[in-house]
Design a protein that fits this description.
By secondary structure, the chain is α+β, with helices and mostly antiparallel strands. The chain has helices at 5-21, 23-29, 33-41, 49-56, 60-73, 142-148; strands spanning 76-84, 88-95, 97-105, 108-115, 120-126.
Length: 149
C-alpha cells in the first residue's frame, strides 16, 4: 500500500525526530559513502531495498543492513509497503534529508543537514585544539614540530 503525500510527510517528520535523538550517530553515518549513495538514490522517490540495491550496485544483504541502520537513525523514512511479484510485500524508503554539506575550517567539522520539511540540523565537531604558532603541544613529537616549519 503506497502512502499519500500527507502520510509520507508524517513518516518523514518522525524520521527527523529520530535523527535529532541520534545526532552523534547521524554525524558518523553521514561520512559513510554507502549511506550517501543510498540517500541520493532515495531523494526523489521511495524505493524498496531490492530497488535500492539494483540502482546503487550495493549487494542486497549489505543494502538491507545499511537501510536498517539509516532507518533506525532517521536518515530514511519508511513510507509504506508495496506488493512485489516474488515475496509478497516490501517496505518503501525515502530519504528524510533534502541536502547535506560539510565545512572544514579552523580544526573543526561543521555538518549542515536540511531535512525535507525545511528544518536544519547543525552538528559541530572540534577536531584539533588551537596551538599558538611555534609551540608544540605536550606529548607531541618535537621532531614533527621542527619538520613542519
Amino acid at each position: 500500500m503506497r502512502t499519500t503525500g500527507d502520510q509520507e510527510e508524517v513518516c518523514i517528520l518522525e524520521a527527523i525526530r529520530t535523527a535529532n535523538m541520534h545526532r552523534d550517530e547521524v554525524a558518523e553515518s553521514l561520512v559513510d559513502n554507502s549511506v550517501l549513495i543510498i540517500a541520493a538514490a532515495t531523494a526523489r522517490r521511495a524505493l524498496t531495498v531490492r530497488e535500492i540495491s539494483t540502482v546503487t550496485n550495493i549487494p542486497l544483504a549489505t543494502c538491507y543492513k545499511i537501510v536498517e541502520k539509516m532507518s533506525t537513525l532517521g536518515l530514511l523514512a519508511e513510507t509504506g509497503k508495496v506488493r512485489t511479484s516474488t515475496r509478497g510485500k516490501a517496505s518503501m524508503y525515502t530519504a528524510s534529508m533534502r541536502s547535506f554539506s560539510v565545512d572544514l575550517t579552523n580544526g573543526s567539522i561543521d555538518m549542515h543537514v536540511t531535512w525535507k520539511n525545511g528544518q536544519i540540523m547543525n552538528i559541530n565537531r572540534e577536531v584539533c585544539m588551537t596551538v599558538p604558532q611555534g609551540e608544540v603541544p605536550a606529548g607531541a613529537d618535537a621532531s614533527l614540530g621542527m619538520m613542519a616549519k
